[in-house]
Amino acid sequence: VPMVAPGNVQVHVINSTLAKVHWDPVPLKTVRGHLQGYKVYYWKVQSLSRRSRRHIEKKILTFRGNKTFGMLPGLEPYSSYKLNVRVVNGKGEGPASPDKVFRTPEGVPSSPSFLKITNPTLDSLTLEWGSPTHPNGVLTSYILKFQPINNTHELGPLVEIRIPANESSMILKNLNYSTRYKFYFHAQTSVGSGSQITEEAVTIMDE
């Protein structure tokens, strides 16, 4: 098997899901056989928005021939990763380079996990929601938009409310009685807005 590990391993983080790794080629005489390529082992150490450590699953990408760089796609935003590089010949892999730590920046969050509308009165509705399963960063706020829908399914004026990120419910007041409303709800990080969840609900006709 090869005798030495690739040197000077560098990671360039391109965005929240993609990184580029560079390395110096090993001297050909240390390959001790036919150079087949380089393998990059990489794994997520932890999410920076959640402190949970789960089973660590190592991923391997093989770059054929005498390449000295490769792309690592499909990374999770706002996470800490480690990687190392090994050279491969027909017999197997050489020693691993020292582990290199890198971090991906924040991304936009997934949609809120649920939006539930309860306790209708003449002029109010209660909204409850769950935070995104994948915040992909630090949540800065939630955005609620809503509008009335009339009997011919035409949409009325859209109202927008910004809600602090630590809230999980609110009572929406001063609504029209016996009116159907459509709600659009999404979370935000400093990078931008995540995908939205929609729901409809009706205020009651009379007490």
Key terms:
207 residues, mainly beta, Immunoglobulin-like, 2 domains, FN3_sf, Neural/epithelial_adhesion, repeat, disulfide bond
Describe this protein's structure:
Residues 5-107, 111-207 form the Fibronectin type-III domain. This is NRCAM protein. One of its GO terms (cellular component) is neuron projection. With 207 residues, this protein is mostly beta strands. It has two domains: 7-104, Immunoglobulin-like; 112-202, Sandwich (Immunoglobulin-like). It is built from no helices and 14 strands. It has strands spanning 7-15, 18-24, 35-47, 59-64, 69-72, 79-89, 100-103, 112-118, 125-132, 141-149, 159-164, 169-172, 180-188, 197-202. The strands form four sheets. A four-stranded antiparallel sheet has the order 4-3-6-7, with no helix packed on it. A hairpin with a 2-residue loop joins strand 1 and strand 2. The radius of gyration is 26 Å and the shape is rod-shaped. The chain starts with 6 loop residues before the first strand and ends in a 5-residue tail after the last strand. The relative contact order is 0.18.
